[in-house]
Amino acid sequence: MKKMLLLTPGSDYEAAVNALVSESFLMRKFKADDGVLMLQSEEGWSRVDGNIPNIIGFFALTEEGQASVKDAEAIWTHQFGESSPGACLLSGTEDAGKQRDLLSAWLLDKLSAERVRLMGRNVRLMQGMAQLRLTHSETQASFERLESFYYQKGEDKRFVARHLEPVDGISLLLKADQYLTQRLPVESVGISDVAIYLRQTPVETGAELNVSLRTVEDDVVVASWNVSSACLTKGWQRFSVMRALGTDPLTTEIDLEWSGAKPLTLALAGKNPDPRWSANIDGRSEGQVLAIQVWSAVPGVLSPASSAAHTQGEPRRRKWIVGLDLLQRVESLEEVGGSIHFDERYGGVRLSPTENQTLAARLESAAPAGASRFVASVETKNADAPRVEYAIGVAPKTSKQTAGKRMPEFMPDCVSDWVSLPAETWSNLELLLPEPLSQRGDIYLMARLSSGKLPDVDVAACFFPFMVHE
């Protein structure tokens, strides 16, 4: 703890030291040099500035010393724009004992006043902290309302920030207990998803792929996923955070560890001789870059993840989106009659049922584990089309037929009611499951004509991106 300093002119220094009885204080010489207040210490003379908070005041015992103190106080006020810390002037008192008593009483008064000042400052500090907490709570509530408005306006989307397509003929094998790192080709701002491409579906059960997203500068893991081999398939494997990363621009890496007895086959996107940007296994550069996709969203904002992604949960209830990336991979369950395809013009899956036919399409693995509520968006785009009935269903992946062209036998309450709509009428279909899915499943999109009669028009019954809730 620093001792408090009493400043005295050089002419009074010896007597002043004798008058000081407490070891909690130190006496220091001061002088005024060309309008600048100087302080003597063990290192020599130095300029008094605002960085010496332990100066308690000035002390003088003679008329000459009192004049020097008054000059110093004037310099202090001019230099710092505030009153000096005070002075104890004893020029009319020659008795040494009385000098000590008067100085002790003055110091006691100063310390008492300082204690009162500090207590008042602490009270104001606590009041300020309480106000800060209140302001913080109000700000959080405002952001929650802003997020709600953001969702209602349909802006809670994730966009592809970078896409490195797999190159045919080159792959990278990741063996058990190996550690693979790949620096991402974008900064961390707003990152919401990262995807890698598997050349083959893992055949063994019980293995696990551990994925982590890490910022290089501070070596912090900002997200991690542990995915069972049963949940991995050939193609893009997408890993999502529920809330996009913040606004600080940092370098990011994706780290992979595989526990299977057989290697995991990863697709590559081409060569890169720079070891910082190529895939590294156990610190050894492979000279190649992983095929990778990176999505971004508004930084720090909670947005629905793709229902096909491996997600990292938060304490609040999760929700996903069946987006364009899934709708574009739609599978037709009809060998003949009707038409099913993704229509770029309408931005959705287009079904054109024929007479007395239920037309169905499958979105494979689009229903995430834990989902219990599906809210689809539908509309018949042709103004001349008859009324069309729409429905959606959910079934486990094990219900997929070998031929791949038939609908499964849906479990009770796993298919929605049929909703009949006239042309150019937008509506929602809602399916509420009796209990959340225990494993990833397939979503089925179905449409049929209400009358069974088909006029000479293209029906254009469309399903658009829709929401899935936990």
Overview of this structure, please?
With 470 residues, the chain is α+β, with helices and mostly antiparallel strands. The protein has three domains: 4-114, no CATH class; 159-314, Jelly Rolls (Sandwich); 325-469, Galactose-binding lectin (Jelly Rolls), CATH 2.60.120. 18% of the residues lie in helices and 39% in strands. It has four helices and 32 strands. It has helices at residues 13-19, 63-80, 96-152, 324-327, and strands spanning 4-9, 25-33, 36-41, 44-47, 55-60, 87-89, 159-164, 171-174, 179-187, 191-198, 208-215, 220-228, 235-241, 251-258, 264-271, 280-281, 284-285, 288-290, 292-296, 305-306, 310-312, 319-322, 331-332, 340-343, 348-351, 359-367, 373-380, 388-396, 419-421, 427-432, 441-449, 461-469. Strands 20, 22, 24, 25, 27, 30 and 32 form a seven-stranded mixed β-sheet that branches. It has a six-stranded mixed β-sheet with strand order 4-3-2-1-5-6. It has a six-stranded antiparallel β-sheet with strand order 12-11-14-9-16-17, with no helix packed on it. The longest helix has 57 residues, at 96-152. The protein is elongated, with a radius of gyration of 38 Å. The chain starts with a strand and ends with a strand. Residues 399-403 have low confidence and may be disordered.
How many domains make up the coordinates?
3
Mean pLDDT: 84
Instruction: Give the terminus-to-terminus CA distance.
Output: 58 Å
**If classified by CATH, what would the architecture of the largest domain be?**
Sandwich
How would you classify the helix and strand content by structural class? Answer: alpha+beta
